[in-house]
């Protein structure tokens, strides 16, 4: 936890950014796994953590804009609980530890909200993503659960995004801790990777590292020799000589700040020339992104600059033909990289994605493209100092997608499908780093450099 | 997955055990962690797994008792999904793989249920433990979510318990696989345990092992130098010379069968005489349980036999005084072991606890005691061949509980509180194995023997 002043300052700023009313921030509750008392590892809501810092289930924070006060609602443990659970802090002590002067039992919350509604005051809440919180909001507001999302406060979303997206030095230090755990995970994966081992063994081992040094993985790791399948959480394959293994994994610190790296490596420890050709295009794209990212530039334009580097590389290999500018403008690179260059990163690995991607990655100036590929870009807007984003170019050969484009003649004047078909069994390459936008440009986060060049990866795997 | 015949047979038997109506078995859905698309590791409902074996989210199985048919409801992936996720089996293929001939989109389910309700047929469902399923049942039945539990089918609960609690040879083989992962975890914990290491490092490492070789831990591990705190999931302490570390952890196989072991070890690798005194009482209790457990005996009586062994040991140390039979009958051992001897184990680490403990551990013949300690026993009823239970005696010195009993003069004629106070900083010891009730008695599960004697533990830690 940060010191109380950090949370007091954050709440003060939020109360000033919202015109009027009360702001209700719901913490998370235990989530049952296979029976009521066998819960998943508790994960607090990130916005609740940002403003209240308390990593306990069943809490709600309320900020009163006009009265300029904050309070915490939650239920104390009973003496019987303490026999089984050991000493537990009272809710009032938890509140005090983060500079909140008032606390009440949870049953008081509905009275507070009801009284505000009766006086015609605005109730601000964020989009719930757990059904428990959807139901809680519906009950507090006296509305049907199906209508909860209509009542979400856009004013609150915008105010929270404006605060959370600019990371303080202390937050950056936490993200760097997460990066250092990520470094350990990725080096371990490189050292374990060999023909005959199951993907699951590597995925489990790196998740163990994330749990040893922090709060576990920041998302379900992708560890696969089928990197061309983008949303691939299957870990059942035995690694095969000649394939590439793609490892996309990150950690959370005990304060829930995240990292997110991707590396791709040859299962047998040595890249073939064909693998190097594609790999080095992606590496050049990764370097290009870090050269272009700086305050004042949109990340959409950084994505396009990266797409151009990829198009040039693919043209040299004969997979793309025609005018490069036209190819990029027509979204040809989307066939090879159907996803965006990156997303914001912080207390969530896709930071604040629960609010809706467009509130976080776009604004009145930069709107989301409708083009296949570029349209998947989560973070498109102007970069500012203090933003933390991922830079994750990739190049994949997705058989179903290639066949679809060929069949539907999409961008067929730019693509040499005959050559592309030589790569149908290639798989995919992605190289992802976490970068901080600085006054001068950007810098990669993490004390340790995760091996990335062909030589570094091969050496680590030896 | 087992072969289709296994699931067909299980469903046939269930349809025969329930008099009439339709049986609706809800699978689980993805559970969001910190935003909608960042879910927890998917865990299928155990009863759904038992009857349908399909480890996919968003499925519902329906058994029609009179028509003697089964079907699966679920939604197929779209072609766009497949571009991102790779080839996915159709619902009809999933159904066929477990011998179910009919499958429908999920939207058809409400029609099926509504039509059965209209014809006055009974709708059987189990107690939901995830809010998503509570809401789904409420909507299907047209009732308020708060009333769902009133509509639960006790007939179905009893029929499912009767089937699931007798483990087949194939199930026992799976549980033994889980035990072998548990063996690896506990030996690793013994080897890592030393002063100066954080509990979290050990907890993370053993969870990593569970993820490398199976589906992860079967419950949130307890790894603590404060074993006297029974519900202790805090892993923040640095281990201290002189303390005992208690490690209660188990694994799930990829088919979701569970193991559950506890071992207790001296942080510095050598038990003191005082630690050995208590440890050997618990070890004797563990051995006694395995001597007594056999078909026809209630597990409540095995608990009481174990309590007697503990009372004798504690009397020899001067902590308990007076007549041993009276001490046991009065629940004196509850001060030192406030929990029960064990619970059933299978597809859940507390098998079928979602139905309610009394449906699983008690019946018309054996009812739950109201006495502190014995009343916490989860499995009390007559043991039968094919039951799998944990045997987990423990001895703890819980300061808050000791002070309460002393203050309230509970069982004061049997307890030498002055001597007990010498143990206030002792911590706790628990030794837990998983046992199968056989025709002749019982046997410990797992190919490998998890070190348990003082000598074995000390040697493993060397």
From TrEMBL, chains A, B:
Its cofactor is Mn(2+). GO terms for cellular component: cytosol. GO terms for biological process: proteolysis. SUPFAM superfamilies: Creatinase/aminopeptidase, Creatinase/prolidase N-terminal domain. Residues 2-134 form the Aminopeptidase P N-terminal domain. One of its GO terms (molecular function) is manganese ion binding. Its EC number is 3.4.11.9. Keywords: Aminopeptidase, Hydrolase, Manganese, Metal-binding, Metalloprotease, Protease. It catalyses: Release of any N-terminal amino acid, including proline, that is linked to proline, even from a dipeptide or tripeptide. CDD domains: Prolidase. The keyword Protease applies. The keyword rRNA processing does not apply. Pfam families: AMP_N (PF05195), Peptidase_M24 (PF00557). It comes from the Bacteria. Transmembrane segments: none annotated. InterPro entries: Aminopep_P_N (IPR007865), Creatin/AminoP/Spt16_N (IPR029149), Creatinase/aminopeptidase-like (IPR036005), Pept_M24 (IPR000994), Peptidase_M24B_aminopep-P_CS (IPR001131), X-Pro_dipept-like (IPR052433). Belongs to the peptidase M24B family. PANTHER family: XAA-PRO AMINOPEPTIDASE 3 (PTHR43226:SF4). This is Xaa-Pro aminopeptidase. It comes from Mucinivorans hirudinis.
